[in-house]
Every structure is written in C-alpha cells, then in structure tokens.
UniProtKB/TrEMBL annotation:
<dbReference type="InterPro" id="IPR037294">
    <property type="entry name" value="ABC_BtuC-like"/>
</dbReference>
<keyword id="KW-1133">Transmembrane helix</keyword>
<feature type="transmembrane region" description="Helical">
    <location>
        <begin position="234"/>
        <end position="264"/>
    </location>
</feature>
<dbReference type="GO" id="GO:0022857">
    <property type="term" value="F:transmembrane transporter activity"/>
</dbReference>
<dbReference type="GO" id="GO:0005886">
    <property type="term" value="C:plasma membrane"/>
</dbReference>
<protein>
    <submittedName>
        <fullName>Iron ABC transporter permease</fullName>
    </submittedName>
</protein>
<feature type="transmembrane region" description="Helical">
    <location>
        <begin position="143"/>
        <end position="164"/>
    </location>
</feature>
<feature type="transmembrane region" description="Helical">
    <location>
        <begin position="176"/>
        <end position="207"/>
    </location>
</feature>
<feature type="transmembrane region" description="Helical">
    <location>
        <begin position="60"/>
        <end position="79"/>
    </location>
</feature>
<dbReference type="GO" id="GO:0033214">
    <property type="term" value="P:siderophore-iron import into cell"/>
</dbReference>
<feature type="transmembrane region" description="Helical">
    <location>
        <begin position="300"/>
        <end position="320"/>
    </location>
</feature>
<dbReference type="Pfam" id="PF01032">
    <property type="entry name" value="FecCD"/>
</dbReference>
<keyword id="KW-0812">Transmembrane</keyword>
<keyword id="KW-0813">Transport</keyword>
<feature type="transmembrane region" description="Helical">
    <location>
        <begin position="100"/>
        <end position="131"/>
    </location>
</feature>
<comment type="similarity">
    <text>Belongs to the binding-protein-dependent transport system permease family. FecCD subfamily.</text>
</comment>
<dbReference type="InterPro" id="IPR000522">
    <property type="entry name" value="ABC_transptr_permease_BtuC"/>
</dbReference>
Amino acid sequence: MEKKLKKTVIFLLISTLSLLFLSLEVGKYEVSLTSMILGKMTDPLDYQVFYQLRLPRTLMALYAGFALSLVGAFMQTIFKNPLASPDIMGVSSGASAGAALGIILGGGGFLTVTSGALVGALLAISLAVYLTRGRFSQQLASFVVAGVAVNALAQSVLMLMKLMADPENQLSAIEFWLMGGLGAVTLGKVSLGLLGSLPALILLLFLGRQVGILSLSDGEAQALGVSLKIIRPVILFLSALVVASLISITGIISFIGLVAPHLARLLLRTNNRNTWIVAGLLGGNLLLVSDILARTLTYAEIPVSILTSLLGAPILIILMRGKGKL
C-alpha cells in the first residue's frame, strides 16, 4: 500500500509541475517561461501577461482544485455518501443568490459581488446548522435534509434575482458568474482567497482524525470520544468557509469536489488522510487542465465550469460502469 501511495503521489506531483509550466506558457499570447526563468524576457507586455494574467489564474486553479477536492473528500466521508460534494449544505446556492444580489443591487463590482457571494454562502451554512440544532444535532440525515431545504430556498432567491435583473446587462452577468471562470483572477484576489480559506483548510487537516471517525457509525464515533453535537457542525462550517472563500472569487466550479475523491479512492482502494491528499492533488490537476483548455480551445474563453463538467461527467460514468456502483 505504501509503495502504491508513493508512486501515485510522485506521479501526481510530476503531472502538477508539468501542468503548471504548461499553464504559464500557453494561451492566446504565448509567453516563454524559459526566458522568464533565465532573465531574458525584455518585452514589458510579456511581463504584464505573465504576472497579471497567467500566474494568478494558474495559482488559483491549482489551489482551488486542491481545496475543493479535499473538502469534497471530507464531505463524502462525513456523510458516508459518494454523491456528497462541497455544496451539499447549500453553500454554492447561497453564494449564487448572494452574488446575484450583489450584481443587481450593488452595481456588479468585484467587492460587492464577492462580498455578496461570501455572505450568502455563510448564511446558507449557518441556517442549515441552525435547523439541525437540539435533538436533531446528532442525526446525519437531518444535515442532508437541512441542506436540501436551504438549497431550495437559495435557488428560489436566485430565480427571483434573475426575474428582477436587467436582461441586457445584469442577467448575462449573473449567468456568466454561475458558469465560473478564472479569467478575472489577479494576485490580489488569490491572496484574498487564501486569506479566507487557508486557515479553515489547515484546521480541517488537523481535525483529520475526527473526520475519519465520523465515517464510522454514530455509536462507534461516540464510543471513541467524538462529540457529534460539536464536531460535525464545526467541520461542516469550516468546509463551507473554504468553499465560500473560493467560489466567491471564481464563481461556481462544478464536479471537481465530487469526482476527485472518487478517483483517489479508485487509485488507492482506501479512504483515509492519504486518500484525501491524493484527491486534492487530482483536483488541482483537473482544474489546471480545464483552465488550460478554457483559454486555448476557442478564440473566446470558455467558462471553466463547463469544462470541469465535460471532463468530470464522463469520468464519473466510467467509474460507475467499472465498479458497478458508486
């Protein structure tokens, strides 16, 4: 098992480095990474393209793919459900409703849209956790039902925002945000995403033992000293904070957090801390590939969420056919 893990991690690290170099070089305007490294790049436009466009979106693709996949692995472990994903508690829908509200009422500026998405996502998870308080706090199904209810509520708000939106400008801005994209990411936005999500992600990794115990039955988890009433909402809220901090900047990114954990378990035939890290590396690779294709396949840039779905759906189908079950 250790030998297989080592080979898998080495392969993923090599593929990650290869994709990083490729992502920094390719696009509508080609930049020579070799010239940049050797200090031979003299054209100011090359510097501008590299530091203001390529580098920020490459870093965001790698980190967002890693973080969303890691959170997806946590969600599938906690809920004991292979279909669980980072937005199971209505986080993505809450962010979408908040972003739409920011576009309509706040003029569509970066700060208003990002703040609206972040607040909407955090309100969604807060409401979901609130609905599971009291005697429902230790029942796993209650969190799923609360997530479904919050998701339905947020979707209703989103549809209302679309109905109120100006068809010529605001509606198209909402739809474009919902499709996700890394084209407008800057180094400042990358820093903002890291500031909001990295502390929560580190805390989740420190809680890895508790996450693993939650994959057992509730009775076994309690026998091992885990307080379901406390630890489950804490892990869910931290996971939501990671997702909210990232998608408030990138827009909705589909399938990454669902597919990458499946691939990791398929490769390692287990589900533990090592599998979660492999899932993160796979997610980073998938989002890097999707972003590279998004800006090279056609003259106009394709929203990245379209490509993550196009790549993720066939992979999920192949997994279902190969294993006979999810």
